[in-house]
Write a structure and sequence with these properties.
Rossmann fold; binds pyridoxal-5'-phosphate; 389 residues; six-stranded mixed sheet; 13 helices; four-stranded parallel sheet; alpha/beta; binds zinc ion; 13 strands
Length: 389
């Protein structure tokens, strides 16, 4: 299981860089760097049959992941989450093949474990001495967990209105937590200052190359779980958007590995009407997204006024023939209850937004009754009990 990582490439200006250095964004243009692999070698060395018998974690795709020394492949059992059919929720909308990728079963109860597992593993392998993150909650908890596994100090900057369970979790995991009067963008400023002072390595969304590599494993798993086909539609709650960017990358890699064909799902981004920069940019036809003013939503993970990978998200939505849609908080809350009542899943508000979007998508003809549709249920409702009265 040798990593086929070769180099990094800027997603915007396409400048290339050596991969064996701790690096954040592209030194030339400031945009995200993406990991590149020797896909010809991997096509030979890593046929999909090689997966048989490997442990059910995201490390089963190690050849297409960036960590070279197996000793740094940190694990808490992340990945290979269930793909569940949502029979009742589907039929209530006339959809016969509705599925959920149930990401709450990851360590620290969200999909953020995938990205932070990879980013912290790789940062440690490359010699980082401490890690820091601006977060709405879930990413901070995930970073703290993996930092503990490898013995790195963890510094978390989080808006002061973060729900109490996140704070308890981060502190119990040994992180130093700073409550910030502001949004995640204000938290990012503190992280940047610490980087300039040489205090830590910044693992913000798409500001280092490897969180997206962890997130892309959701795409590999979907293909494996659907027996090497892809669904027709993916509905994804979008803040910083690493999941969409990562899965879109995974599909391309898998096609070049000879694992899947050229068919792609339509990618659909869901945001809250209280913070919908990607939806607005999609509708206005722009390549990047202007920052959202006065962002406000109960779905804290969707309260991201801007995304450095905006063009990558928007490119994937457009290339796939997908769309972007915003739903109000009241509908998100109703969908949380609906999913619990109909399907036995207590999901996070960000994730419930995908279910809330479905009636609108059906009405607009954006999804069809027999299509295979996958909702990404990105996190657990247990850290958001204040929303359920
Ligand atoms: C449960 C949950 N879903 C979705 C998101 C949005 O994720 P991303 O910023 O990767 O788009 C978050 C971010 O905090 C989250 O915690
Ligand atoms: Zn660049």
């Amino acid at each position: 299981m040798k990593s086929c990582l070769t180099h990094l490439e800027c997603a915007w200006c396409h400048e290339t860089y050596e991969a064996d250095q701790l690096i954040n964004t592209c030194p030339a243009c400031g945009k995200p760097l993406l990991a590149r692999y020797d896909l010809d070698a991997a096509r030979e060395a890593f046929p999909r049959q090689a997966l048989a018998g490997r442990p059910p974690t995201l490390w089963r795709y190690a050849e297409m992941l960036p960590v070279c020394d197996p000793a740094y492949r940190l694990t808490l059992g992340e990945g290979f989450t269930p793909l569940l059919k949502l029979r009742h929720a589907g039929e209530s909308l006339g959809l016969h093949n509705l599925y959920a990728k149930d990401e709450e079963l990851n360590p620290t109860a969200s999909f953020k474990a995938r990205g932070l597992c990879m980013a912290v593993s790789r940062a440690a392998e490359l010699g980082a001495k401490a890690v820091a993150i601006p977060t709405a909650g879930n990413a901070g908890s995930a970073m703290a967990a993996y930092a503990s596994r490898v013995g790195l100090p963890a510094h978390i900057f989080v808006p002061q209105d973060v729900p109490a369970p996140f704070l308890a979790e981060m502190r119990a995991l040994g992180a130093e937590v700073t409550l910030v009067d502001g949004l995640i963008t204000d938290c990012a400023r503190y992280v940047r200052e610490g980087v300039e002072a040489g205090r830590w390595f910044d693992v913000s969304t798409l500001k280092e190359p490897y969180r997206v590599e962890g997130k892309k494993t959701m795409g590999y798993e979907l293909a494996e779980q659907f027996d090497w086909t892809l669904p027709d539609v993916i509905v994804y709650p979008t803040g910083g958007g690493t999941g969409i960017v990562g899965m879109w990358k995974a599909f391309d890699e898998m096609e070049r590995l000879g694992w899947i064909g050229a068919a792609r799902p339509r990618m659909i981004s869901v945001q809250s009407t209280g913070c919908a920069p990607i939806v607005r940019a999609f509708e206005q036809g722009t390549r990047t997204a202007a920052p959202w003013q006065e962002a406000e939503t109960i779905a804290a993970g969707l309260r991201a006024p801007g995304a450095i990978g905006d063009f990558l998200i928007l490119d994937a939505l457009r290339e796939s023939g997908g769309t972007a849609i915003a739903v109000p908080d009241e509908e998100i809350l109703a969908a949380m209850r609906e999913l619990g009542r109909l399907e036995g899943i207590f999901t996070a508000p960000e994730a419930a937004a995908t279910l809330a979007a479905l009636p609108h998508l059906v009405e607009a003809g954006a999804v069809q009754p027999d299509e295979r549709i996958v909702l990404f249920l990105t996190g657990s409702g247990l850290k958001y009990t204040h929303l359920i009265r």
